[in-house]
Amino acid sequence: MKKRHIILLLVFSMLFLLACPLVQATESQATEIIMVLEVKDEVEPGLAAYLERNLKLADERQVSGIILLMDTPGGRVDAAQEIKRLIYDCDIPVTVLVEDQAISAGAYLALACDKIAMMPGSTIGDAEMRVNGAMADEKYLSAWREEFAALAEDKGRNSEIARAFVDRDIVIPEVVEAGKLLTLTPERALELGIADYLVENMEELLTILGYQDATLLYGEITGGEKLTRMITGSTVAPILLGLGLMLIIIELLSPGLGIPGIAGAALLILYFGGHMIAGMASWIAVLLFIIGLILCIIEIFMPGIGIFAVGGLGCIVGSIFLTTPDTATAIKYLVIVLLVMLIMAPILLKLFSKSKMMDKLLVKETLSTEKGYTARKEKLETYIGQEGTALTTLRPAGTVELADGVRLDVVTKGEFVAKGEAIRIVGVDGTWLIAEKGR
Asked: Which residue has the higher pLDDT, 191 or 313?
């Protein structure tokens, strides 16, 4: 009997040991985690920051797979390239589910993923590179086209189809004709080997991937990331910059108000802070902008030949270039900033026309014969060598009164002459008398 008991014990022990891995596998499957991340709206640096944080979290949580929910019309090339690098550096399988659009930079990101699934009614393609609304030249287009092809080849997809997303000159019989960019429906993408699955919803995709029993971990976007995404958007960013500059100018023209200055500083902090968080700007850009602002302020309070203004504007323009990915985007930002300022300028003049600073910047005095002003004589040369006093500030044009009481309109050679300073007529340029500071 004892021998039988020993045999039964050994049999049960072996069965238990064999069952343990099965129990562990079932438990592991039940606790399997899939991370779900959103790639929606414009592709910009804020989106890259959001994905970078959550991909690190996915690695820490040892998730089994990552699903990107995509619906984007495209966006910035530099941001798309950064996100592609993040996907490639990730050791976890990444599947994209195109819910509606994977256009332009969205198509680029979809091709970078291990698997592509599309829902009915969605589209992928139309990735022609454009600069300021116009098609990019061949220098940029060729590089972008071959990047698409390289991504397709790496993931075992048709590279010529990927090229046709970018280049309208590519012809593929029965697929796309010359002069048209390729955009694919889910059925066509599946047929041509671009998409791997056509699914009705997320649940169907999870089942196909074998994740039907997995726990879904949604990558939440933080308030800071939402703000960063908004700030670094191609429309909001230059408007923030333009309004910030305009409010700072208002504060300078009406010192003591405080509110415009605080609001302007807040908008500029949002602009540069958002770009720094997104990794698009450094302290050098901020420092350059501050230096430019200081030089412009010096020019307002101590006007001279314009060197401070030129230097200040140069520094501000340089700081904008340092927060944008390329020259075309920087020019676009500058144009929007100028438009904002042109729109705001009439309002500014209306609101602050009575400020003391505006009085210094604008010559408001009306010159009439009742006040003793006379028109120039035909022989202006007769005034050369005469001395007098500046009746108005010469910046560089203004009015002077000679020693004999005659009042004349003059211009300097760029020299700033304050009201009340001594002047001397030194020459004639066309119909203008040239004056300089007296000795």
From this structure: 191
Do 305 and 281 touch, CB atoms closer than 8 A? no
Return d(Cα 61, Cα 34) in angstroms, integer. 10
Contact between 287 and 301 under an 8 Å Cβ cutoff? The reply is no
Residues 6+ apart with CB under 8 A from 206: 34, 67, 212, 214
Domain boundary among 196, 221, 246: 221
- What pLDDT, on a 0 to 100 scale, did the predictor assign at position 321? 80
**Residues 379 and 343 occupy one common structural domain:** no
* Nearest of 110, 83, 106 to residue 96 by alpha carbon: 110
The pLDDT score that the predictor gives to residue 93 is 95
pLDDT of 19 strictly over 70: no
If asked whether residues 187 and 249 sit together in one domain, one would say: no
Q: Quick one: what percent of the chain has pLDDT higher than 90?
A: 32
Q: Which amino acid is at 18?
A: L
Q: What is the dihedral of CA 51, 52, 54, 58, to 10 degrees?
A: 120
Q: Is residue 2 part of a domain?
A: no
- Looking at the structure, tell me whether residues 48 and 169 fall in a common domain: yes
Q: CA angle at residue 425 from 420 to 429, to 5 degrees?
A: 125
Q: 382 burial class (0-12, 13-18, 19+ CB within 10 angstroms)?
A: exposed
Question: Which own/partner pairs from 413-417 qualify as long-range (CB within 8 Å, at least 24 positions apart)?
Answer: 414/305, 414/306, 415/304, 415/305, 416/303, 416/304, 416/305, 417/390, 417/393
| pLDDT confidence band for 226 (50 / 70 / 90) | low
